[in-house]
Amino acid sequence: MQNFIRDIIEADLQSGKHASVVTRFPPEPNGHLHIGHAKAICVDFGLATVLAGRCHLRMDDTNPDAEDMEYVAAIQRDVRWLGFDWAEHLFFASDYYEQLYEHALHLIRIGKAYVCSLTEEEMREHRGSLTEPGTESVHRGRTVDENLELFTRMRKGDFAEGEHVLRAKCDMASPNMKLRDPAIYRIKRTPHYRTGNAWCIYPLYDYTHCLSDAFEGITHSICTLEFENNRDLYDWVLNQFEVSAEPSPGTIPCRPRQLEFARLNLSYTMMSKRKLLQLVQEKRVSGWDDPRLPTLAGMRRRGYTPEAIRAFCEMIGVAKNNSLVDVGKLEFCIRDDLNRRSPRVMCVLAPLEVQLDGFPEAGIEPLVVPSFPAELSLPGSRSVPIGSRIFIEQEDFSETPPPEWHRLSPGAVVRLRHAGLIRCEEILRDGTGSVTGLRCRWLGHDEANQAKAKGTIHWVCAETALDVEVRVYDRLFDVEVPESLEQLNPTSLAVLTHCKLEASAAGAECGASFQFERHGYYCADTDSRPGRLVFNRTVTLRDGWTRDDAKDRADTREAALARQEKQRAGAAMAARAPSAAGLEGVERTRAEAYVAAHGVSEAVAVVLAQHRQLGELFEQTVGAGASGKAAQVTANLIANELAGHLSDGPRALPFGGVELAELAGLVTQGTITHGVAKEVLGQLVTRGGRPGDLVAALGGEALSVSELGPLVAAVLAAHPDEVSRYRAGKNTLLGFFVGKLMRASRGKADAKAAEDLLRSRLG
Ligand code: ATP
Ligand code: MG
């Protein structure tokens, strides 16, 4: 991660200002960590790690009101879970109380702090405004001795809360309001979770934080932008002390520097600890680890991995301007990670029972299916039971299907994923006429060879199915930037209690993650009991939310018109200069993600991001295992070739990500050329099929160099004039020859190989 903070630290190391970097992550133990903290942790610990320094974990615990040991433990667990280690450097600001007190006495002695006895109200009135200077307190003139006496008595407990405070004597006329004699100590009678009743005065944040940094030898104190205004005070306090290795109330061992970066704001959620606490206390969620919350505990329970969260933090980077990050980016990262680690199983969420007539009584060969059918380099396989009764998804059957229906309907044939073909022959109904089940024919070999399946659906064997509960989570809030708890999404949780899961997942341990084929990624919840697994939906396979629901929910005629207008403007902009900067919101997020995660060119990424069907197809292809070069090949094929086929708008295609991944693989392995890939894609669009078969039928394997030789000779022989002009120095004719050669090979020559060969023959 290279960013401006790293640049500054590296410069300080290079100039010899510091021998090594020391950072810290300073949470207040008054709540659980959330994804925003994860960003800070990745910056603080991440930079210390890559720059071979160290990072401290410090509990910033100077407010006895809300802090708790429970939070301390949770914070440690969450930081470790994210993958970071503070080794022996766990500190508590509350361990510095004595030292901080001694340093306050020093400030009094040098005339830089005084006890003020104004009421809170009066202090506020004295503070002035952005345009008016403040007024000095009548107590500002107290002598050092008076101040020493009052402050020691404050500590002894001689006064009531609010009677006195200790204030830094800075400048009541400072344009920075933070410097107008801020309070640095206050009286508080609440027992502290660590120091109990030992203290009744507590140091305030601005005084505590900089000195704690100095005591620990922190070199760079990295925090979020809302502390930018506090930096003057940070520096003012430290400047009152001499830097010296000799410990004394007048010295500090080092002079840390504060650096600020933009905090993370994520759409459709809230990150203020106060608001999160309110959600928990008002029981609007089930607890701090409710899987809908942006807390690390909630995300862990939901099935997020530390790797995905770290990748997300890396992707969003570190900058100095506040912005709203689309939650789609986070979901992209978790899909990307789970795709490689979650074995596939089949689960029917809303079951419809199907009787398979003609299913062999003796059963069929056991179905042994790879755990990662689309990525055979990943290990594992499972045995999928099947019998004469299965469950399919209710929504995979339609009695009166729409025109482009690729699933089951009366008389239609579909493929059961990993198994055979079935034809729907009869609808079973109850007394009221509702569909209760189907009778389908299990097609034997011969019949199956002749039938044409409409599509592939998943299923689960009824006899061996596991009854499981699935908790389907949606965004916690209805609006992108929620401001009040009244904007909670009322349907953020749906509990499905009659789901049927493939028996191979029976032993799933709590936390285990699976891809439920065609649905998404799910992980076993802590509420699972023997015989009754409970799953949380981590994330869907595709990003469908913003596309459909968000629009449905917020749609008014005006909004629709405004969106159309924006799309037109966007399209015009993309036509001029395809740049992700011309996009907004989710589209921009997607485009950036395609570039960042897959190295797709920006222009292509823009096309994919703007056309949801194309983008989804690309994501499916990546999901089916196309990565690196293959992902880029796919992206280019989709944006340059497929886009044209779909220019009339989205429509159902007889192929999907699996086929495209195979096609891209053939290109990257050099089996076929880009030209042939285009041709195969055209055939896929019109009639579907497997790319391997189509290539074989076309005789489309790329020509080897020895096969190319005779063609090159023929092309050169047919164009003697051009050959002599080329040899006389007209090098630009190379393109002419390449074109002729490609035509002669009917697109089967690899352009690069052809060019090389031509060049050497033309010599
Ligand atoms: P509050 O919600 O009460 O303001 P906080 O979230 O700032 O609290 P702290 O415990 O003070 O909680 O945060 C510890 C560190 O995490 C701080 O350095 C803070 O800058 C950083 N941090 C907090 N929220 C974010 C965020 N959304 N993005 C990046 N860093 C954050
Ligand atoms: Mg804070």
Mean pLDDT score, rounded? 90
Spans of at least 5 consecutive residues whose pLDDT stays below 50 are 545-578
Number of helices: 26
Total domain count: 5
Structural class: alpha/beta
Bin the strand percentage. 15-25%
Distance between the termini: 47 Å
CATH architecture field of the largest domain: 3-Layer(aba) Sandwich
Q: Please state how the strands of the largest beta sheet are arranged side by side.
A: 14-27-28-29-25-26-15
Q: Compounds present?
A: adenosine-5'-triphosphate, magnesium ion
CATH topology of the largest domain: Rossmann fold
Number of E-state strands: 29
Helix-residue proportion: 25-40%
Nearest-angstrom radius of gyration? 33 Å
Task: Explain how this protein is built.
- The chain is an alpha/beta fold and 763 residues long.
- It is 40% helix and 17% strand.
- The protein contains 26 helices and 29 strands.
- The strands form eight sheets. It has a seven-stranded mixed beta sheet with strand order 14-27-28-29-25-26-15, with helices on one face. A seven-stranded mixed beta sheet has the order 23-20-21-22-16-19-24, with no helix packed on it.
- Helix 2 packs across helix 11.
- The longest helix is centred in the last third of the chain and has 20 residues, at 557-576.
- It is globular.
- It binds adenosine-5'-triphosphate and magnesium ion.
- The site of adenosine-5'-triphosphate has 14 residues, from helix 2 and strand 8.
